[in-house]
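REQUEST ID: PR-0412
SUBMITTED BY: lab tech R.K.
PRIORITY: routine
TASK: structure prediction, single protein chain
INPUT:
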Amino acid sequence: MENGTVPIPNTPPVSPEINSNASVNFPKPNRTPVFVGGAVLGLVLVAGAWFFISTKKEVPNPCLTQDLSKSAEDNITNVVRSFEEYQSVKDGKALSACKSVSFTSDLMSQSDPFPFYGITTYLVGNPVPISAQEFSVNVNERRMLYSGGVSGGTYPEQDVDATFIVEKDANGRWLIISYNKRNSNAPIGTSTVPEDWKTYRNDKNGFEFKYPWEWVNRDNSLQFGTPNYSSAAFRVIFSEDPTGQLIQDWLKSSDEFNQTAYEGQSSKMVLSSKRALIDGKQAVERQETWNAAGFSTVVTYVKVGAVVYQFSILPGKENIISESDKQKYYKILSTFKFTK
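STATUS: complete
OUTPUT:
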């Protein structure tokens, strides 16, 4: 020791005792700017979406916005195109605006307006007048059929020729009242023709059709049935009409003439009338009672160019036309073709 100083050994510095159970208070970060920024961003996104939706212009439905100053053909073509467009994207609400209240169709199910197919393309033909208030339009549709289900199915394509009937309503708008395949006048199941049926061909007048093998052309009079007249027969009559009038106008004139054609009284009574198609041509099918002959029958009228064709069923020996006879009649009509 020098100068009375006592040396102190080297010892580590004494630290205050730390209690592991004591809580430690760390400074809290300031998150307010982050929360405020996120809220502002959310509001901006919501406001932007609302602005986009509210300012987006909805494309008007041509079926509702028809320009009546334009020609009937222009408006009708737009309506048919819109119908096909809405059908292809399955927009039922827009589609309904193109149809009249009395709309009928053999291509669209009544319970579900969209059968299990998709229209890929369509070609709209020119409107053809039936009367001043009614037009027909032929459309070729290219369809994709979903035959095996949505998943794992097969997808064959098919061409369908459809005919639209478009009519002017009380407000002057053109609306679709009928949408059918060609030869849709034939009841379901009549399109299959037996292989042994014969073909009658008339090259001079330009038409042909098939008929049962056991039938004959009686006396070459275009009356086809059994030789002994035991069953009903199919008859074709055609006449010239150079006036250029539509089949409905021709029928009106014919009915006026027939009012006094049977001993001063009406020779026939029209029980019902509806539209039909013969080889894609607009026709009229009527249930008529022929007073002079004493029976009721089905008669289908179609006019091609200046020629009016009449197809009818004639009863057999018992003067009766059965449902089987009518089915055979429709089956014959489904094979009728104009060859000129």
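NOTES: Confidence is low (pLDDT under 50) at residues 14-24, 109-116, 147-155, 183-191.
REVIEWED BY: pending
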